[in-house]
Amino acid sequence: MCRIVGAPRTLLPLLAALLQASVEASGGIALCKTGFPEDVYSAVLSQDVHEGQPLLNVKFSNCNGKRKVQYESSEPADFKVDEDGMVYAVRSFPLSSEHAKFLIYAQDKETQEKWQVAVKLSLKPNLPEDSVKESQEIEEIVFPRQLMKHNGHLQRQKRDWVIPPINLPENSRGPFPQELVRIRSDRDKNLSLRYSVTGPGADQPPTGIFIINPISGQLSVTKPLDRELIARFHLRAHAVDINGNQVENPIDIVINVIDMNDNRPEFLHQVWNGTVPEGSKPGKFEENNLEITSGNAV
Prior knowledge:
The protein is mainly beta. Among the domains are: about 40-125, Sandwich (Immunoglobulin-like), CATH 2.60.40; about 135-260, Cadherins (Immunoglobulin-like), CATH 2.60.40. The chain has helices spanning about 1-25, 130-135, and strands at about 40-45, 55, 70-75, 80, 85-90, 100-110, 115-125, 140, 145-150, 155, 165-170, 180-185, 195-200, 210, 220, 230-240, 250-260, 265, 290-295. The strands form six sheets. A four-stranded mixed sheet has the order 1-7-6-3, with no helix packed on it. The protein has a four-stranded mixed sheet with strand order 8-12-15-14, covered by helices on one side. Strands 11-17-16-13 form a four-stranded mixed sheet, with no helix packed on it. A hairpin with a 5-residue loop joins strand 9 (about 145-150) and strand 10 (about 155).
């Protein structure tokens, strides 16, 4: 008799757990599902993949906020994922069907529980008309020409070479990467060159904001900029041959972040009361201060 009465008591915790799992599965109470909210993440690239290029961002839904997950790629030789879920290319390679699909894993550091999501990459079609239009619209920055001295050494031209700054509006909506300018050397006609950029915003913190195609020299920005955080970037562009030998002296590139009024001015009150002395003459100035607030400093 005691065994019959006591048995259900031992099953109460198990029954409670099963009931909770059933409610969560039905969606009656649990509104959050831990894992990736998307089944597949996709990105369309306008050029071949190159080393360090940000590709896309995968988001992991952490319902209780206490899970600490680490990301991994099914193709670690080609792709890596930082702690914020940004997927980067580990090396440069032409995009093909072999690299078009791979998986991203998120693993709980404590429980070792693992989730996965698929990533698909595709190359944006490049029509001949688009190529001509693009070459006309994208500005080129060419390394200064060098003169050959009689003794065989290179000599730079005497006149100063000043490259105008690049003005980039803040809070741009993209699409990203957004192409800015093309950097090239006249020596690319005879040599196979590789281009790179260095400095804060490129290979120094905050890294990955500006990237360059090492083959074409196309400089791009990968995300919206905020002038309140950084108003100006100073980069240096380099050109080397396939053996890593410098073929041009580095040039300085300045990128100014242009302020955009992203917070419209608003009056503090809907109605303002002012006073005018009796008998005031027409055209006489009477000071009544109207206060206006704006999220941007004037």
